[in-house]
Fold these 2 entries.
Entry 1:
Amino acid sequence: MRVAKLPPGFGRLWTAQTVSSFGDGVMHAALPLLALTLTRDPMALAVVTAAGTLPWLLFGVLGGALVDRWDRRRTMWITDVARAVLLTVLAAAAWFDVLGVPLLAAVAFLLSLGGLFFDTAATAYLPDLLGREPALLQRANARLRGAQTAASGFAGPPAGSALLALGRAVPLLADAVSFVVSAFLVRSLPAGPQPVADARESLLRQARAGAAYVFRDRLLLGLALRPAVGNVAFLAVETVLALFAHERLGIGTFGFGLLLTAEAAGGLAGAGVASFLGRRLGTGTALTCTATVEGLAVLGLATAPDPYVAGLALAVCGAGMGATMVLGPSLRQAIVPAHLMGRVASTSRMLAMCAAPFGAFLGGWLATTSDIRTPIYAAGCLLLTMTAVTATMTTNRRVEAALAKAATTSEPGRPEAQGGAPDVRRPTEVPAR
């Protein structure tokens, strides 16, 4: 069957997110280096790093509930403008030499809070733009994921390091410009359907209903558990990877950078073949296969005798992750009701973010009490166990049933006031699209 073309508006959204991802890559390299120009205290540096993760932990589900109340396109471009202003203020502080760790941590927190709203709104807006067509969503997410990896993983970090050499304010202004360009492009996108707000219902109650919708649906729960458990495993590996590369593989800083590049290259390849895998195997089976590949690749990394085998293992793992990050979100966007999309997306993301610190602690503890390879072995086993547990939750049969139900239900009912998951059998009144 011939798949419809992506609408012209997608090109602007893709460009906006590519430019913004490049700015994120610039800041990913520049922010820790900028912090190092202010202090060498490890705890102070940890405060800056932690500040960037707190918004998802504190406001993840509530942020999704707000996005479901607000116009999604407006939320995206206003958030971009706000982040540009924040970075301009930070650049001015750096220029006038009044920059300090508290201000840097505060801006890191607010930038991450803006990212929470933008990412959630973008995830919810894409199905509206593409009409919730599963094949189109897979193609679109593959392109978005590939561009994000290339811009934030390949181009952005070296640019950030180079720009910081020109002055502390330069990478901050570059990222601010990227947000301005993104805001301009997003502002020109077609308007989506207006959200159906229920002023009688509290924000907390709506947030709780969105989280309940995820936990009561086995397919959505399986899709949420994979990145959550995966983050525990991957953070355990990331915590010891540099030390493992230095002590067991005998490579230095440049070689370590090449290892990370191999993983990013695999991610690009995986995103590119995700739609093909979904068509050939079915989305449910494809997700099980990519998760299995990730677990086996991590075990291959643990047993790697040299940098070449380690690089190959990371590339294969990256490919599995890249495909998973296309197939999973595309399926979620195709089956979740529009009025719940923000809450479901933010709940899934919050689970993944909350799991990450446990992975870092697990990796450090296992490496300290056992051997440097132990966290990597444990991560591989954890990934394979997670795959076995969630395989029955994301089968092709469940996926096809969910897609069929979504195709026959324009907008499900909303018994959220009772705290339960929406009943997809009962329609509700929504504005015409």
Note: The chain has 15 helices and no strands.
Entry 2:
Amino acid sequence: MTEREANGGRPHAVVIGGGIAGLTAARQLLRGGARVTVLEGSPDIGGKLRVSEVGGIPVDEGAEAMLARRPEGLELVRDLGRAGDLVHPGTTSSAIFSHGALRPLPSGQVMGVPSDLAALARAQVLSPMGLARVPLDLVLPATPRGASDVSVADYVGARLGREVVDRLVEPLLGGVYAGRVEELSFEATMASVAVASRSHRSLISAVRGIRQAAPGNPGPVFATLAGGLGSLPHLVADAITAGGGTVRTGAMVRGLRRTPTGWRLTVGPARSPEYLDADAVVVAVPAAPAARLLADEVPAASRELARIDYASMAIVTLVYPVSAFPRLPRVSGYLVPAVEGREVKAVTFSSVKWPHLRESAPDLIAVRCSIGRYGEEHTLQRSDDDLRAAAVTELAVTCGLDELPIACRVTRWGGGLPQYNVGHADVVARIRAAVAGQPGLAVAGAAYDGLGIPACIATARAAATRVLEHLDSRGELSHGSDGEGEQAQGAGPEPGDPLHDVVGIPGEDPR
């Protein structure tokens, strides 16, 4: 009896990578009629979604929120039967440390591009000279762009001046990509603004159009789970195993080869490899390992994946007694422009932002400090004590804290954030075109259409749909997809996908 016969004739789909994209793809494949195995090389699933206690408070180590205005994340939670665990921020108001002081994030902006010049002036984020430069955008001739991509710094700077780039756009995008605005793609990182700018000569007018078209009451910007967003991957994994799928950790895939009937994977150490056969494969790992896996069978995709660079960062989580704060913060957090020359690039007052954390520990305040930008890896080549000292110093200066934290956790995310540099959309299109030539193969994850959780889920749905269609075309499925993935066909970047979940500060001013 063959392995397939022993499993009721069901085709075998293997998902490489146990992050939220890989797990979501696996769950959809299982529900679509395939036999599913998830292979995760590290000791635990979840990728950059992880939660642990600091000072007795469960605080996420990576992404701490997902966008509630994109449906995919909330749909997944509800489909898992955990809608009752969803919680929303108590406040999303935020600040920017600019010209030596904390100042409110100007209302009316979208990803740092202003629409309300009076609100911009009141915020005092810009110098008088920088502020005077902004309205020239309304009278300047159109900035040539053609069909090619440009950097954020080049386009936004040409329209609004360099100070808007440095003190508004850069810190907002820095919270997502930890990248450099001179290299980040305008089309890929500011999609809604880029689209609107093609029908408006003025960038301010383009953003005004975006805001006017927005729904009057769009609801909460962010959501998380009461137990931390890091609990989501385990909920999905539990659903996979309950449905008969297999989730393996410590199972590093080192080789991927096509066979006459599908694919063969080499798993584990070279001295004692395991070989696993599959009818279809979803590669849901970061760009560099994906490039290595595809090098032999899909070299064109491998070359393009190798072009996607990554930034490293660290999140220092501190827990203070409430008494350490001369006055409690009223904002969810603040961003720090790179031009300020400070080590910490963003701060989130987690116990202020998330009321359920404050209710669980009313005498404590948890704070997350983000350190690290692309090209500044030396900043992270220091001890945990040094990073802790940098975060403590930051809060002493900005919040007047004169007590030490009672607990600290340093989480390092080496090569954690893909860089969507100029031409990123074309790179992704070439990857997908090359993969499309290989039946039964798909890719998913944060390297393609967005770093946020909903965007990753969308890529997973599209990948699973592609695989299920392939298996169904061979007559190998007893039934087709349950429909969950149909809406994700042709998944791409969501226009207006604001700030991502690592920092959790909105890139669009909520209406």
Note: Residues 480-504 have pLDDT under 50 and may be disordered.
